[in-house]
Amino acid sequence: xxxxxxxAKPPPFSLVAQIREAMAGIHxxxxxxxxxxxxxxxxxALLVTECACCADAPxxxxxxSDNIHHGAGTDRKLVLERxxxxxxxxxxxxxxxxxxxxxxxxxDRVDQAAELARLTKMHVAFGKNIDLPGGQYGNAxxxxxxxxxxxxxxxxxxxxxxxRAALVGSVKPPSRGSSVMFLATHLDHRxxxxxx
Length: 196
Description:
By secondary structure, the protein is of the alpha+beta class. 22% of the residues lie in helices and 36% in strands. The chain is built from four helices and ten strands, in the order E-H-H-E-E-E-H-E-H-E-E-E-E-E. The strands form three sheets. It has a four-stranded antiparallel β-sheet, covered by helices on one side. The chain has a four-stranded mixed β-sheet with strand order 4-5-7-6. A hairpin with a 2-residue loop joins strand 6 (123-132) and strand 7.
């Protein structure tokens, strides 16, 4: 079970600057591990802690990132319960999800983000990247704690590639004075740096 322990620090600059720095870090990480990133569909979730004071002890977090491929397994069957079983077994605090559909014809118009939240008993935020027949396709975040804020930010698109976006928000664990900011995105696997 992966644990990520982060010390709480006051935000040194604006949210936009934090997002730019986070995206630059993601880019550097993907450059260093490009073959691995390709194998993992270049998926990424990044957490940044923001707080009003530095008195909080480090917060251990269990974080997961999954490309759910609109719920289709390697057998091409749409069974969200298999995804739920994996998520629940790992007891994560935050889960970044990519390729999530809402109201799309090919997935029986199910709101997959809401259904995954219901089945895992977690809170959810969804952000649309593109429209598909009957609905939307994008990113989602599941959280053990209520999601205080969230915003979906469209990322630059080049060469008619699929529209990418980042879902940015915050949660506030009940035992802490600080909030945890999350950023979840689904990056492009193409070798052109402008696309990645």
